[in-house]
Amino acid sequence: MFYEPRLGHGLPYDPFKAIIAPRPIGWISTVDPEGRANLAPYSFFNAVHSRPPMIAFTSESMKHSAANAIATGEFVFNLCTRPLFDAMNISSDTFPGGVSEFEAAGLATAPSRIVKAPRVAASPAALECRVVHSMRFHDVDGNALEGWMIIGQVVGVHIDDAYLRDGRFDTAAAQPLARCGYRDYATVTELFEALRPTDGGAYQPGQRDR
Predict the structure, then answer these.
(1) Among 2, 157, 169, 194, which residue has the least CB neighbours within 10 Å?
(2) Nearest to 132 by CA among 37, 28, 52
(3) Which CATH number belongs to the domain containing residue 133 in this structure?
C-alpha cells in the first residue's frame, strides 16, 4: 500500500509509530521554577550528537517536562528498564502541576551532581543535561505546530557499577525498554556484534570494538 499522511491511511490503526520502532524511551526528570520535581516518559527521544554528547526529546504539546526544561535550562534522562516498566507506565499518567510522579510511582529519588533535577535512584544509568536548544515544530507549509524539541548537552553521567563489564556498559544486563507501535514495548536482552569495514582487518568472532 501507499498513502499520504495528509489524506489518511485507511487502516484501523496508524502504522507510523510501528514502522519507526523500536524507539528508546526518554524518561525525563525535571524541576519546575518552584523546585517541584516532575518525571515523564517520551518515546520520541534519542541521542543526537556524541562530541559533546547530546540527547533530544520531543513533546507533542507544551507539557510539564518541556516547559520545565525550557524554564530551568536543565533535565535528566533516566534509563528505563524492564524491572522499572510499571513505575514508568504510572509516570506517563496526566497529573496536575506540582504533583510528583516519583511519589505516585513509588520511586526513590537520588540527587544529581550538576543539575537540580533529581534522578530515578533505581535506574542503572542517568544523564544530567543542560538545554542547548529548544524549538517549536512547523509543517511543510510553515504552520506552527504544538510540538517542541528539547536538545540537551550531557554534563554528567551516572552509571551503576553493577552494569559495568570489562570497561563496557552491559546493555543486555540492564534490559532497556523500547517503545514500539500502538501499546507495544520491547526489551533489549540479547546483542550481536559486527565490525564496520572502516574498523580494519577481517572480523573475528568474539572480537570486541573498543
Answers:
(1) 2
(2) 52
(3) 2.30.110.10
pLDDT at residue 116 tops 60:
yes
Name the region of 98 (left: φ>0; alpha: ψ -120 to 50; beta: rest).
Answer: left
Task: Establish if 17 belongs to a structural domain.
Answer: yes
pLDDT in tens, 141-154: 999 999 999 999 99
Residue 98 neighbours by CB under 8 Å, 6+ apart: 32, 34, 36
- C-alpha 25/C-alpha 177 separation (Å) is 7
Total domains present in the chain: 1
Asked, for residue 171, whether it belongs to a domain, the answer is yes
Instruction: Match 504539546 to its residue by C-alpha cell.
Output: 61
User: 202: pLDDT confidence band, cut at 50, 70 and 90?
Assistant: low
What b/e readout covers 137-153, taking b as 16+ CB neighbours within 10 angstroms? Answer: eeeeeeeeeebbbbbbb
CA–CA distance, 154 with 207 (Å, rounded to integer): 30
Residue 103 maps to a domain: yes
